[in-house]
Specification:
Low-confidence stretches: none
Number of helices: 12
Strand content: 15-25%
CATH class of the largest domain: Alpha Beta
Number of domains: 3
Largest sheet: 5 strands, parallel
Bound molecules: flavin-adenine dinucleotide
Shape: globular
Structural class: alpha/beta
Strand order of the largest sheet: 10-2-1-14-20
């Protein structure tokens, strides 16, 4: 029997691969639902994702593990709107709208040329090579990379920081330039979408393909022993192979290792409003390093079913909420949104604030080349988004690759 511990994307993808190979397995998940960090809840008829998460059409593996049309994708428009404190300006994707991107007033001519050159380079570089850079000792931070390539301060503060700061949950752009390049390529070649049922519909669609007799919710593993795992209730679960498909902090607890350093956290502040702020299905990027809100979106412009009829749902992503009580954070977020859309003043009603204390691991330059965990016993394997870069695609691939390793023996 193969025991997979953890029912997030990595564990579910691993289970699917074992099922395809006709192998018996048991998937042990501590929580009451599958999905791990891809969680969605409901409140007063609103659909609330626990953190702003999007799937990219360039994540090839998503179409391998699930039937995308059955998730009823709701598409974002390529590009975004930036706000410089005075005015909203459309930011076009150079690949879906090259003319719009070339004539955009946001970037200098030099930045446009540099971005075009970088984009072309990335298109010609396989993703595997970009990810390999994350393991290279010569890897540098995203900020240093952009500076070295000659991008202007305004490119960094008006685009890279609000957009990629929000993607990498890293306001200072200290994350690996290899990973940034990989994400930039994925954004340039794909479009973002969310399932109509919220982000948790993705892992749920994977779980639905697995035999229910193999699925064990509410089964927290507390210890590993030779040929078995121990559950919280003391029960021993026999297993000749054990796959740890855990988030980094849980993996470290189970292996008796110190907690991970500097993980990225995030808070999402939800507002409901009966006054639509804007109509485009895209993200708003306010500029300024002293702002709490890194980006926000009227998510019902993309997925109208996320709110009851007559209402709009606004989701604001906050990377640093330290020092603020929940009501102070909501007030600050509402104030910053109203600076962009004055009609929001007095109409936004705070619905919920969801804190995600562990969102993704810290991914500094060269992170993938460092040994994340010590050698495991011969029958124990590990996978998860901490391996090759935190993303939906990386978590799924990590689960599939680990299942293949187990099958090879
Ligand atoms: C706020 C936020 C925004 C994000 N945005 C994006 C995005 O836009 N695009 C993108 O590509 N990626 C995004 N990501 C990253 C992506 O969601 C993750 O990389 C991915 O979901 C991780 O999957 P995983 O299976 O590796 O880990 P997890 O989802 O953490 O799964 C681990 C599972 O193990 C279970 N578990 C833990 N301990 C035990 C135990 N002892 N016994 C049994 N079970 C246990 C947990 O309950 C959990 O279900 C985002 C993540 C967050 C949090």
């Amino acid at each position: 029997m193969i025991a997979i511990i953890g029912g997030g994307l990595a564990g579910l993808a691993c289970a699917l691969e074992l099922k395809r190979a006709g192998r018996e397995f048991a998937l042990l998940e501590a929580a009451a639902n599958f999905g791990g960090r891809q969680r969605t809840s409901q409140k007063d008829g609103f659909t609330l994702d626990h953190g702003f998460q999007v799937i990219l059409s360039s994540y090839e593996v998503v179409g391998v593990v699930c039937d995308i049309p059955s998730l009823r994708p709701r598409w974002f428009e390529s590009g975004a709107w930036t706000f410089d404190g005075q005015r909203l300006t459309r930011l076009e994707s150079p690949f879906t709208n090259p003319i719009g991107a070339l004539t955009s007033p946001i970037f200098t001519i030099g930045d446009k040329l540099r971005l075009g050159l970088l984009g072309a380079e990335l298109l010609l570089t396989p993703c595997s090579r970009l990810l390999a850079r994350c393991a290279d000792s010569r890897d540098i931070s995203t900020r240093a990379f952009l500076q070295r390539r000659g991008f202007s301060k305004s490119f960094i503060s008006r685009f890279a920081q609000p957009f990629f700061g929000g993607v990498l949950l890293d306001n200072e752009l200290e994350t690996s330039a290899g990973l940034f390049s990989y994400y930039l390529k994925k954004f340039l070649t794909g479009r973002a979408w969310i399932p109509s049922g919220g982000i948790q519909a993705l892992p749920e669609s994977l779980a639905a393909q697995l035999p229910s007799s193999s699925l064990h919710l509410g089964s927290r593993v507390t210890a590993l022993a030779p040929n078995c795992v121990q559950l919280e209730n003391g029960e021993l679960f026999p297993a000749d192979r054990i796959i740890l498909a855990l988030d980094d902090p849980s993996l470290r607890i189970l292996l008796g290792l110190p907690p991970p350093s500097a993980p990225r956290q995030v808070a999402v502040v939800y507002f409901k409003t009966q006054t639509s702020l804007y109509t485009n299905p895209c993200l708003i990027l306010p500029e300024g390093s002293n702002l709490r809100v890194r980006h926000f979106v009227q998510i019902t412009n993309i997925a109208p079913e996320f709110a009851p009829a007559g209402w709009h749902l606004v989701s604001a992503t906050v990377l640093d909420s330290t020092g603020l009580e929940a009501d102070e954070l909501a007030e600050a977020a509402a104030h910053e949104i109203a600076a962009v859309f004055p009609r929001a003043a007095g109409t936004l009603q705070h619905l919920e604030t969801i804190q995600v204390p562990y969102a993704i691991p810290s991914q500094p330059p060269g992170f993938a080349g460092r040994k994340a965990i010590p050698d495991l016993p011969q029958n124990v394997y590990a996978c998860g988004d901490w391996e090759h870069g935190a993303s939906i695609q990386a978590a799924l691939n990590s689960g599939i690759e680990t299942a293949k390793r187990v099958l090879r023996g």
